[in-house]
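Subject: design request, 134 residues
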């Protein structure tokens, strides 16, 4: 397991700065901001979902290296996003919680578009490491 964590971290650090900034935004929205709202079920479920996705990334990195298949780890967002969508009616858009809820949905949806494209590319044979030497 430790080997997977090390490979994942090395790969993440080797990504272009723009992608690393995007990942910081995703981690912030899915893991840090929800900690301020842990009294709400949507926030707790988002944190748990992110922990599951991170665990899947470590497992996938250990098994396949730092390749495009890592996008498959966000499969859990295919359940999270519709769940959050169904909860929108009960959350006012103009309060901090409402802003966060909508922001995490948008960011995760954008990420899923790229993740799906990466997994399709991997399935079609693009199995080279995303970052050289990882």
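Subject: RE: design request

Done. Sequence follows.
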């Amino acid at each position: 397991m430790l080997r997977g964590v090390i490979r994942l971290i090395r790969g993440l650090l080797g990504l272009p700065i723009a992608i690393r900034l995007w990942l910081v935004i995703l981690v912030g929205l899915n893991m840090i901001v929800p900690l301020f709202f842990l009294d709400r079920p949507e926030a707790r479920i988002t944190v748990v979902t992110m922990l599951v996705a991170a665990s899947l990334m470590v497992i996938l990195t250990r098994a396949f290296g730092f390749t495009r298949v890592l996008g498959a780890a966000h499969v859990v967002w295919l359940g999270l996003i519709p769940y959050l969508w169904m909860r929108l009616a009960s959350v006012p858009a103009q309060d901090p919680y409402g802003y966060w809820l909508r922001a995490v949905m948008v960011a995760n949806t954008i990420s899923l578009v790229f993740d799906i494209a990466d997994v399709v590319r991997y399935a079609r044979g693009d199995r080279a490491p995303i970052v050289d030497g990882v």
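The radius of gyration is 15 Å.
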